[in-house]
Amino acid sequence: MKHTDPCEFAPLDQISNLSAEEYYSLLHPEDSQGRAAVLCKFGHNEVENHSLEHAGMIMQMPLFLDHSSFLTLNRFWKGRRGKSLAALNALYVDLDYFNSQHWRGKSPDEVQAAYTAHLLVSGMPPPSVFMHTGRGVAAIWLIDETPVSALPRWQGAMRALIELSEFFGADKKCKDSSRIFRIPDTINEKSGKVVRVSGGTGERHGFDVFSDQIYRASGRPTRSELAESRKQKKAWKRPGMTMPRGLTQAQRFQLIRHDLEIFRKAHGGTIPTGLRNTWLHFHATCLTHMHDVSDIEREVQKVAAMATPGLKPVEINAIARQAAEKARLVRTTAVWSDGRYHYKGATIAESLGVTSEMARIHGLQQVIPDQERKRRKAEAEQRRRSDNGAMSREEYLLKNNASREKPWKKLGIGRTKYYELKGAGQLPVLTEV
User: Fold this and answer.
1) 93, containing H or E segment
2) Is CATH 2.40.30.10 the classification given to domain 6-217?
3) Burial code of 97-136, b = ≥16 C-beta within 10 A, e = fewer?
4) What confidence tier does 233 reach under pLDDT thresholds 50, 70, 90?
């Protein structure tokens, strides 16, 4: 993750100002499973719904531009009812930034650039399509055709994506599979402005990989991490076993905050260019878990002045405001659903470029790569076994000549029989020939 001026994000855009036909073809390629649907509004109350094959939709598209028309982002067998869903095709957010005090009055281009910077800091890929809807900004990530059986995971990813975009006024209701967005070149009747595609990469993403990116960015566990957690919990449910007690989230993030300070001092007191907004975001996240920080925005500003010189005020303010909002959320025992970010130490280490060697040299406790964490766990287990009297295989063989020399083979009997006879004092005497 690099600290980049939002104005420099324009080169990332591979598409812009697509026609309605180009937009439709990008979202819904020919030979895709199911059909897209279009809703047209006439006046205040009259609407028409259209569900056509690919060629028919392309042919009719110019006619839709004379009205307020909307296109589904996913595909259906008939119409756009949830029970007729044929395939999942995209994830998306509708940024009603005019409802956010921080972004109200800003231009769509400013919001789009800032949102792209926010995604970059969070480790998210930029949207496949950005659209200025006449009032807000829509961001769409296209995914490879995904079966309906993945709908529960898709819904979870949508909730996490909206949470990640909350600072920019993301519409929390925009999370259903039958959602429709305005078609480019139509006019938003509420503002009188033309809807247009304003940027994007045009790329498609594999759903499994992309959903994990969303979960990491929002501080939630990935599918593999959840599976491992369930596996560990199941292992601890054996009779007579109790779950081990670990650090609370406040304790864990206190240690992470301490590691971040060590990282800063290791770089001469200031964070290197390219990591500044990332480091500050993680530091601010730690503060949201602290019970003794009364004014988070002021604390973030103070830390930024010392650790991240050169970071633009708009970026510092965005990080500070988001942290303050997270800190005000009600604390619950449900770690992954309390609204705060819960980054793994390995995720932070990867984002900041912390190596295993660096973690060992500086004595980092939480911000360490997975490989280093596994090494420390193995060492701790070896020490535990040694403290309990266990010995290495070499030590055991030196102490137990029989295991090393295998005398039962010389007697032509099995190992079990050898120890039976030895216990009974009936071992035959070996004689040298």
Assistant:
1) strand 85-95
2) no
3) beebebbeebebbbbbbbbbbbbbbbebbbbbbbbbbbbb
4) low
